[in-house]
Amino acid sequence: MGPRSAARLAAFVLAVTASAAGADEAHHAHVSAQNGVEIVHAWTRAGEGGTRLVFAEIRNLTGREIVLEGAESGIAEAGGLVGLSVQGGTLEHVAIPSVPIAPGRTLDLAPDGLAIRLSNVTTPLREGDEFEADIHFDVGTIAVHVAVEAANARRHSHAGHQH
Question: What does pTM read for this prediction?
Fold first, then answer.
């Protein structure tokens, strides 16, 4: 192999390695794990502050039931769990103190279901932004990156691929 071929091969290997490292970093931005619990694809909708709902997949990989207890973020005054309920003929989000997750099961926090409500968000959230939140369980707290999707999004833009 001549010097030019060796240089091209080295450049190719570096490019592939950099690409794989970038993909690995992107993967880790979508998955947070601790104590046998994985949180995948945490996201919210763009908006001007106020109340924002956070959605995600929460996987219990432990051999016992765990309990989702709540959440908080530095961008909001308060955080908590909510579920949809019919109140006076209309759908409303009502506070839920905690949610158990059976061993080996996944809890989907999704529009029109369970969610984390961040109240009094102090900053506008634009599509493509990201912020940190802490999700509280009886087995500990997990820090997550929350992606901001379009104001009318129904799912995380990367939903459907495997982690």
Answer: 0.77
